[in-house]
From TrEMBL:
GO CC terms in record: cytoplasm
GO molecular function annotations of the record: ATP binding
Functional description taken from the UniProt entry: Forms membrane-associated dynamic filaments that are essential for cell shape determination. Acts by regulating cell wall synthesis and cell elongation, and thus cell shape. A feedback loop between cell geometry and MreB localization may maintain elongated cell shape by targeting cell wall growth to regions of negative cell wall curvature.
Quaternary structure annotation from Swiss-Prot or TrEMBL: Forms polymers.
Protein name: Cell shape-determining protein MreB
Source lineage: Bacteria, Bacillati, Bacillota, Bacilli, Lactobacillales
Residues that bind ATP: 11-13, 155-157, 203-206, 283-286
GO biological process, one term: cell morphogenesis
Residues spanning the signal sequence: none
Main location: cytoplasm
Family per record: Belongs to the FtsA/MreB family.
Protein keywords: ATP-binding, Cell shape, Cytoplasm, Nucleotide-binding
NCBIfam families membership: mreB (TIGR00904), PRK13927.1 (NF010539)
Localization in the cell: Cytoplasm
Organism annotation: Holzapfeliella floricola DSM 23037 = JCM 16512
Length: 327
C-alpha cells in the first residue's frame, strides 16, 4: 500500500508526518561530510552534535538556506537517509509526499524541492506554501470565506500571509528568522566582549534568556567561548536586556512586513483578522513575549499556536488527508 507522508523541510529541522502514525521524525537539517572522499558521515541529530566540533576533514553542512535548497545533492542524501531510516519505501511502492516551501520561492527553487523529494524516493510530490500549511496545522479553518492571518517564524525564513478559501491572498517572506537571530547574538558578543562563541551557544542564549519585549535585567546566563585577545577559554555573563536589544532590529523587520501584508489585505478580510487575531507559529513563536511585541505594534490580538514547533508538519498530514478524500 502506498504511504502518504508530509515533510516540513526546514532550514533548522526536518519533520516527517506519516499518514496514520503522526509525526515520526524531528531531526536537525544537518549533514556531516568527509571532504576527503565526499562520503556522508552522519545525518540529522548525530551530525548536529558535530557542529563546531569536527576535525579538518569532516564538515557539518546545512544544505538548506533561507528555506530553500542551497546544496541539492546533500539535501537529496539527507531526505533519502530519513525516508530509508523510517522504512517508508515498499518493495513495489513509493510514498506520496507533500512538502513545503516559503511564499517567495521561485519556480526554479520549487522544481528543485520537488526533484529532491522525487529522487529521495517520492512517488507523487505535492508542494504547498509554509504559512498555509502552518495555519492548517495550528487549527485554523482556512477553507471558509473568511480572513485568517499567520506569522510563521522558522529557522531560515519568516513567512507572513493572509489566507481565505484555502488560498494565500497576500503574503511576505523575509530572511530574518531563528538562524539570523543566533548569528546576530554571535556578532554582538564578538564585538562587545571580544569573545568568540558558536551558533549552538547563541541558540542556547536565545532559548534561555531571549526576549522580544520588556526583558528583565535580572535574567542572566553564563557564556563560554574563546577570548579573541589572548586566545584562551573565557567565561562571562550577559543579561536578557542585552539580548533583547540585539534582536530588536530584526524583529522590527517582521513587524514592518506584517504591516505591509495588512495594508494590502481587502477590508472585509482585515475586519475578520481584527476579530480572530493573528496566529503565530514556528520555533520563533517561542521567543519570550514575541506575541506581546507584535500585538503592541499591530494593534491586533496575537495568539501563539499550542503546537507552534510542529504546526507545519501537522498541517501536511491534514492536507494529505484532504487530497486522499477528494480522490
Amino acid at each position: 500500500m502506498v504511504k502518504n507522508i508530509g515533510i516540513d523541510l526546514g532550514t533548522a529541522n526536518v519533520l516527517i508526518n506519516v499518514a496514520g502514525d503522526g509525526i515520526v521524525l524531528n531531526e536537525p537539517s544537518v549533514v556531516a561530510i568527509d571532504t576527503k572522499n565526499n562520503e556522508v558521515v552522519a545525518v540529522g541529530t548525530e551530525a548536529y552534535r558535530m557542529v563546531g566540533r569536527t576535525p579538518g576533514n569532516i564538515k557539518a553542512i546545512r544544505p538548506l538556506k533561507d528555506g530553500v535548497i542551497a546544496d541539492f545533492d546533500i539535501t537529496e542524501a539527507m531526505l533519502t537517509y530519513f525516508i530509508e531510516k523510517l522504512n517508508l519505501k515498499g518493495f513495489l511502492s513509493k510514498p506520496n509526499i507533500l512538502i513545503c516551501a516559503p511564499t517567495n520561492v521561485t519556480d526554479i527553487e520549487q522544481k528543485a524541492i520537488i526533484q529532491a523529494a522525487e529522487k529521495a524516493g517520492g512517488n507523487k510530490v505535492y508542494l504547498e506554501f509554509e504559512p498555509k500549511v502552518a495555519a492548517v496545522g495550528a487549527g485554523l479553518d482556512i477553507f471558509k470565506p473568511q480572513g485568517n492571518m499567520v506569522i510563521d517564524i522558522g529557522g531560515g525564513t519568516s513567512d507572513i500571509a493572509v489566507l481565505s478559501m484555502g488560498e494565500v491572498v497576500t503574503s511576505r517572506s523575509l530572511h530574518y528568522a531563528g538562524n539570523k537571530m543566533d548569528q546576530n547574538i554571535v556578532a554582538y558578543i564578538k564585538q562587545k566582549y571580544n569573545l568568540l562563541i558558536g551558533e549552538r551557544t547563541a541558540e542556547t542564549i536565545k532559548k534561555e534568556i531571549g526576549s522580544a519585549f520588556e526583558a528583565e535585567e535580572s535574567q542572566e546566563i553564563e557564556v563560554r567561548g574563546r577570548d579573541m585577545i589572548d586566545g584562551l577559554p573565557k567565561v562571562m555573563t550577559i543579561n536578557a536586556v542585552e539580548v533583547e536589544k540585539v534582536l530588536s532590529e530584526g524583529l522590527i523587520s517582521i513587524i514592518d512586513a506584517a504591516k505591509e501584508v495588512l495594508e494590502q489585505t481587502p477590508p472585509e478580510l482585515a475586519a475578520d483578522i481584527i476579530d480572530r487575531g493573528i496566529m503565530l507559529t514556528g520555533g520563533g513563536a517561542l521567543l519570550n513575549n514575541l506575541d506581546r511585541l507584535l500585538a503592541h505594534h499591530l494593534k491586533v490580538p496575537v495568539i501563539v499556536a499550542e503546537n507552534s514547533l510542529d504546526a507545519v508538519a501537522i498541517g501536511t498530514g491534514i492536507l494529505l488527508d484532504n487530497i486522499a478524500k477528494r480522490k
